[in-house]
Specification:
Layout: H1 13-21, H2 27-49, E1 61-66, E2 71-75, H3 83-90, H4 97-105, E3 129-137, E4 144-149, E5 155-160, E6 166-173, H5 183-193, E7 201-209, E8 224-230, H6 247-257, E9 267-273, E10 279-285, E11 299-303, E12 306-309, E13 324-328, H7 338-343, H8 345-368, H9 370-390, H10 392-398, E14 404-405, E15 411-412, H11 414-425, E16 432-437, H12 444-452, E17 457-459, H13 465-475, E18 479-483, H14 505-518, E19 525-527, E20 539-541, H15 544-554
Parallel strand pairs: 1-7, 11-13, 16-17, 16-18
Antiparallel strand pairs: 1-2, 2-6, 3-4, 3-6, 4-5, 7-8, 9-10, 10-13, 11-12, 14-15, 19-20
The structure holds adenosine-5'-diphosphate (ADP) and magnesium ion (MG).
Length: 555
């Protein structure tokens, strides 16, 4: 019998990382800039606490492309590493210095804003580089270190003479990844992932136009100067306190988020909570009208100001994915599948917090300026109606501010409406029948007929209205909806007045027969009698249930 050790080929870990760690190779830059940001923030915390006795200054991160040398440099002025620390943090794959830092200082720094936590981010560099160098000088009084690795498990580590504090990562870009030596590609990546990171990121220079001097002539060109091209806004609006922001600040942040969007948002909701989970963000209501097919995925998800994704499915309730804006939370687990996300306790709480904040904001808009709210109704109703259909909690809140406009341009809440019409529109079984039209022009005659009888007619034209009515009918007692061209409009109470028809019985039968020849008798009802409106000698109706069934099959 033979025994022995299975030889675990450690060589194989790099190809694995390269292939499976992240499906998206481009995120290596996000990871390395996150590390540079962490290193800078750590130094900030340490100097604040007096543990590092160095000048913090105004550190920034610099990205440099060396196209000829096929190298990409990421340079920071953070806390740096000693040789021992390189051994510990870099050579031990999956040992996270970020996690260790947070553990060590958890009582001293709240909201440290540290990004890293898996201890794998650094190795994503090997997805695009055939060789990686680290040249790093700690803030501690120790010599700088130079680490080199070509993607095999062998590395070299030696002392070097770097003088300034901080770390430079040099990627020798692999043959299959030369796209990352293009300025345009790097600019795109920086704008996508790093636009709102907390430490300034410099990428090359740019030309800035200065104001013309007083005595300049008309034809003189404005003077210019070369300045650092800082690609990010380190203090985006959502990281500030609502009290420190004005309406205009919210609007300009919207333009920053969506530079191609020219329409202004209707209003915004500032999210800001740190217990029992951490979440900040700003949501915007865009003008939606009846359009439910607007491009979703407009809400961007960040973690500590690092862009993660613009697919917030499973994190934000579906009806709110029609909104725009940003949410930032370190508490959303992202290394799990979407279906698992929906079951996650923290995520559930976040989702219901967002729903509640949106409902509260709408409620306060309604209460504080009803006229304005009515004016916006048409542009926000699809979100509210969809929310009422899909989230019971939202329904309960929205029931107080959801509006029901009439064809004459008045707006009622459900309660107001019920109060207004119950005397005139309650049938003999005690059911209040709410009449509505879905198209003012097409249903004009029916609307006029109903109004002539003194009935209120709502104008409900959103694409999901039939579902909403169904929902209201089941949640409220003794009400039902009927479209104004439905059969039982005429069976509403006010039965006392008798209308004297101008036609004899035979004439009526004849007209009825003629009309029925051209419409489908099974689907429509033709009435010739009791049409007191001069404009409508006969009327064609369709039973409400039949019409609604058809409609619901369509949506
Ligand atoms: P994580 O960021 O999740 O901790 P990484 O693999 O990205 O894991 O990095 C591992 C560790 O290497 C970091 O925690 C940090 O201690 C160290 N490190 C990486 N980049 C830098 C840097 N630019 N400056 C200082 N330390 C760094
Ligand atoms: Mg990291």
């Amino acid at each position: 019998m033979a025994t022995g050790n299975i030889n675990v080929a450690v060589e194989n870990i790099f190809p694995l990382i390269k292939k499976f760690l992240y499906s998206d190779h481009e995120i290596f830059l996000r990871e390395l800039i996150s590390n540079a940001t962490d290193a800078t923030l750590k130094l900030k915390h340490l100097t604040n606490m007096g543990e590092a006795k160095v000048e913090y200054g105004n550190p920034y991160i610099e990205i440099k492309v060396d196209k000829e040398g096929k190298k990409l440099h990421i340079i920071d002025q953070g806390l740096g590493m000693t040789e021992d620390e390189v051994q510990k943090y870099i050579n031990e794959v999956a040992f996270s210095g970020a996690e260790e830092f947070l553990d060590k200082y958890k009582d001293k720094v709240d909201d440290a804003g540290i990004i890293g936590h898996f201890g794998l981010g650094f190795y994503s560099a090997f997805m695009v580089a055939e060789k990686v160098e680290i040249i790093t000088k700690s803030f501690k009084d120790e010599p700088a270190a130079h680490w080199t690795c070509d993607g095999s498990p062998q590395y070299t580590l030696e002392t070097t003479d770097k003088k300034d504090r901080g770390t430079e990562i040099i990627l020798h870009i692999a043959e299959d990844s030369t796209e990352f030596l293009e300025d345009a590609r790097i600019t795109t990546l920086l704008n996508k992932y790093n636009k709102f990171m907390p430490i300034p990121i410099k990428f090359g220079m740019k030309t800035e136009t200065l104001p013309k001097p007083e005595d300049a002539k008309e034809e003189d060109p404005a003077p210019t100067q070369e300045v650092d091209n800082i690609i990010n806004n380190p203090n985006p609006a959502w990281t500030k306190q609502p009290a420190d922001l004005k309406e205009e600040d919210y609007k300009s942040f919207y333009r920053e988020l969506y530079p191609m969007q020219f329409e202004e948002p209707l209003f915004n909701i500032h999210l800001n909570v740190d217990y029992p989970f951490n979440l900040t963000g700003i949501l915007y209501f865009p003008k939606l009208g009846n359009d439910m097919n607007i491009q979703k995925d407009r809400i961007q998800l960040y973690q500590n100001q690092v862009f993660v994704t613009d697919n917030v499915e499973g994190i934000v309730p579906e009806f709110l994915t029609m909104l725009r804006g940003v949410i930032d939370s370190p508490d959303i687990p992202l290394n799990v599948s979407r279906s698992y996300l929906q079951a996650d306790g923290a995520v559930k709480k976040i989702s219901s917090y967002i729903t509640r904040k949106v409902a509260d904001k709408l409620n306060s808009l309604f209460k504080n300026n009803r006229e304005d709210f009515e004016q916006k109704w048409n542009d926000i109703k699809v979100v509210i109606e969809y929310g009422m259909l899909s989230e019971e909690k939202f329904f309960e809140k929205a029931d107080k501010f959801a509006l029901y406009p009439t064809v004459d341009g008045n707006y009622f809440t459900f309660e107001e409406l019920q109060e207004k019409i119950k005397d005139a529109q309650t049938d003999k079984d005690g059911k209040t029948v709410i009449l509505y039209a879905s198209n003012k022009d097409e249903q004009h005659q029916y609307i006029e007929a109903a109004k002539a009888k003194g009935y209120e007619v709502l104008l409900l034209d959103s694409p999901i209205v039939s579902h909403l009515l169904q929902k209201l009918e089941t949640s409220k007692e003794n009400i039902s909806f009927a479209r104004v061209d439905a059969d039982h409009v005429d069976n509403l109470i006010k039965k006392d007045e008798t209308v004297i028809s101008k036609l004899s019985d035979e004439e009526k039968d004849k007209v009825k027969g003629l009309v029925e020849e051209v419409v489908a008798k099974e689907t429509y009802t033709v009435q010739v009698e009791a049409m007191d409106s001069e404009a409508a000698p006969f009327i064609i109706t369709q039973p409400e249930f039949m019409r609604r069934m058809k409609e619901m099959q369509q949506t």
